[in-house]
Amino acid sequence: MQERVAAAGPKPSADLAALAAEPLVLASVLAVLGIGLLLGAFAFEYLGGIKPCPLCLGQRLPWTLTTVVAGLAMLGLRRDAPPALAPTAFAVAAAIAVWSLYLAGFHAGVEWKWWPGPPSCSGTGISPGNFTANFDPAQIVRCDEIAWSLFGLSLAGYNFIFSAVALAAAGAGAVSTTRRRAEPS
Fold first, then answer.
1. Is pTM, for the whole model, over 0.85?
2. Per-domain boundaries in the chain
3. Burial zone of 25 (CB within 10 Å; 0-12 exposed, 13-18 middle, 19+ buried)
């Protein structure tokens, strides 16, 4: 019986881990995350009727850039690509993920009242004297109010989690492609 198990080869979990460490898979994860999160944000806005606050809108840019950089990483994995393209693209994606983590973490902290948000969308520093003639207070989307949550996490909280996943994928891609580049052909 033991011989049959040993002859079966590596465990499926080992194959899955090796596949997950492949740079093309990691770049694809980054692209899918970027596209998926942007589509989700637009769906919440246009289909769900949840207007984004200024901090929400700011969190979209890193995902747009991540999608583009993931495409560059995929191009860098081609045989005829410059050798530094893939590692550089993954490193840039990791830096963008850190930025995204910061934006999402800051916004979540504002929502949970850990620190004040920007005066323009959290109600601090706005007085009747600041209003212009065309100002409509009902149009302000507040950054310090949670518009939607699931399991106690707001959209900013989920963005933080997805940003951490993107950082892990980008970091693994950078390490993997740098090691492959350093290996003798």
1. no
2. 22-122+138-182
3. middle
